[in-house]
Structure formats: C-alpha cells, structure tokens
From TrEMBL:
Protein name: RluA family pseudouridine synthase
Domain of life: Bacteria
Enzyme class, first EC level, given as a word: isomerase
Annotated source species: Tatumella punctata
GO molecular function annotations of the record: isomerase activity
UniProt KW keywords: Isomerase
InterPro entries: PsdUridine_synth_cat_dom_sf (IPR020103), PsdUridine_synth_RluA-like_CS (IPR006224), PsdUridine_synth_RsuA/RluA (IPR006145), RluA_PseudoU_synthase (IPR050188)
Length: 232
C-alpha cells in the first residue's frame, strides 16, 4: 500500500482566537474558520489553535478538534490530568455537541437521524466514506431551522437550509459526510459535495459552526454550557 501524502497547505489565518472562559484547569475558546486545530507535519502548516495557545498557556493540550474550515466552541485542557478527565467524558459520550450549518438546497424533512457507518479509505484521502462493512458506528441528529437565501458577492442568492446538527458519535468529518449522505451537503464543503450547487463554489468558507458544548467541569463538578453565536 502506497504511503498517504497530505499536500494541503493552509492559507494564512488573520482572525484571532476568542477566549470565552478560562480558569486554572481549562479554557473555552471560539475557533475561527480557516485555522488548523493542530499544526501539520508540513512546516508551512505550523499555525494552529494549539500553536497559538501554548505560547500564552504553556502545557495546554487539545481534548478534541474542529476541522480546518469549521468555527466555534472548543474546550482546551491546561494540564495532562484535565485532558485525561475530559477525554474520558468525550469517549463515554457524556459531552453534548451542537452545531449550526447551512445545507445546499431546501431540505424536505423537518428532522431526522442519520445512521451511516464511516470508514477511512486510503484511496480517497483525505476523504472518509460511508461503508456498511468496514465503517464504525456513526450517528447524527438533525433539525431544520428554516429556509434562507445566502447572498454571494456578485448578488446571486443561494438557496440553503439552516439546520441544527447534534453528532452522537465523533467520527472524522462526520457531519460533513452525513449531510452529503442525506442528499444535502454542507454549503462550501470542498470534500463532500458542498461546492457543486451553482454558485456554492464562491462561498467564503465551510458553513459549519460549533455553537454549543455541554460537559461537566472535571474539578468543580459544575455543568458547563458553552455557547458561541453563529457567524453566518
């Protein structure tokens, strides 16, 4: 099997990371779209959430990631013990994640569940694929919030559906591939059909935002509800 080569070079991101909350144990941040969560192997992909934060908060580590094009709420551990405690909550599915997205076209169903197993496929790298044989259990809940027209720079109005997405599992690219599987890809998604609708190739970003994160503070035991306003 040939080695996988990642040729992606992230363009410069001038947007800053917003600190939503901080204490001696963890940070809650609002990640801008167009910023890697972790630095890549290519030295041109050095800039990332972790690269920026560790300068101000030495020893901090990422508990989870958001895709390069996705914006929104992330929790960052400030030491290894907190990372382990939060990682356990994620692995036991005790963390509730909520996203907001614009889908290409007008979604017919008002709500539903997407149950489609996701697998890695080296031949398709960096894309994942739905595979009933090799795929891992992957489940997402969606709810239609309304129909809209997104204005492009040239005045074109793109028909989109605003939806709330709740992933019950945490597979790589899960929401992007599940929306494509539903037949309504996330607008602006270059890997899973979100730039095929006429005009959608001119969207400024992936229209996916992590709007809420719900978990238990590993030290205080308090329930944390972190939120970030959707920027589109």
């Amino acid at each position: 099997m040939s080695a996988i080569v990642d040729t992606f070079i992230a363009p410069p991101c001038t947007d800053s990371i917003e600190i939503l909350y901080q204490d001696e144990h963890l940070l809650l941040i609002n990640k801008p779209a167009g910023l890697l969560s972790l630095s890549g192997k290519n030295p041109q992909n050095l800039d990332s959430v972790h690269y920026r934060l560790v300068k101000e908060f030495p020893g901090c580590t990422l508990v989870h990631r958001l895709d390069f094009g996705t914006s929104g709420v992330m929790v960052v551990a400030r030491n290894k013990a907190i990372n382990a405690a939060l990682s356990q909550q994620f692995s036991q599915r005790l963390v509730t994640k909520q996203y907001e997205a614009l889908l290409c076209g007008y979604l017919k169903q008002s709500e539903g569940i997407i149950d489609a197993p996701i697998a890695k496929d080296p031949a398709l790298f960096p894309r994942m694929s739905v595979c009933a044989v090799k795929g891992k259990v992957s489940r997402s809940v969606y709810r239609l919030l309304g129909y809209e027209t997104y204005p492009l720079a040239d005045g074109t109005l793109l028909p989109v559906s605003r939806v709330r997405l709740l992933p019950e599992t945490g597979r790589t690219h899960q929401l992007r591939i599940h929306c494509q599987h539903l037949g309504f890809p996330i607008a602006g998604c270059d890997l899973y059909g979100g730039r095929e609708q006429p005009g959608s190739d001119r969207l400024p970003r992936l229209m996916l935002h992590a709007s809420q994160l719900h978990f238990t503070h590993p030290v205080t035991g308090r329930v944390v509800d972190a939120g970030s306003h959707c920027p589109f």
